[in-house]
# Entry
Amino acid sequence: MNWTMRASVTILLSCFIAGCSRSSTSGKYVSRSSNEVDMLDLVEAPAGHLSGTLVISATNQDGIRKPDVARIVSGSIYRGNVSLQIGNNGILSSQFNAVGSLSGDEMRLDFGGNTEDFQKTSPRKYESALVELDQHGDNIKQKYAAIKEAKDLINYVDALDAELQGFISWGNDRIARVSNARNWYAIRVTQYQKCVAFVQPLALRHVPSWKWQSCVLNLDNDSYNRQQAGDAIAQLQNKELMGEQDLNASQRYLKF
# Structure
């Protein structure tokens, strides 16, 4: 054996003894569901000793991405049996254990009664899993946005219906009072005619006004009251006109 070959063998043996060779156990292992992606990034060095991190990426029920959670991992592997200690980054943080097995590229771990399967994967596939997680979250957000929009539309229609019912009730009430209003004005006209018939001959005979002015004062007062009532009706009609315009605009919106 020449010197070059002898040196190469010596380097390989030294690297093997020191744990330089890359273990088949080392790599990224991913467990995923529709709303969560868990990634174990493990390194076996020296042989039988595992270290790395656990990164948990998840969305909440509204589809919003939570901040990723990272945990320090240490443990061991022997003949396919895996034992891990997973804790926080703080010195006084608590930790929990996970035990399981590794067979080929599949790692099954038990976390206190909950079993989770991890598949060895490449960094690129792990990134794809995170992209799909975000897409799933976006779909949920769009779903909730559509539900909210539908509820808002239902509430708007209910409010519009209540306003329409109020408008109909007001209109029916006005219709019901038409006959009373006609009678009221008919009585007033009769009173005015009687007053004029009473005052005119007295005024022509120069009878003192204090004997007949009460009738005229009643006419003046009634004229003022009619003016006030007319202004109130005009204001109410203007208000109802605006309400009718709003209803028409709302109907056009719903048709659109």
Observations:
- The chain is about 55% helix and 25% strand.
- Helices lie at 3-18, 123-176, 178-204, 213-255.
- Strands lie at 27-33, 36-44, 49-58, 69-78, 81-87, 95-103, 106-111, 114-121.
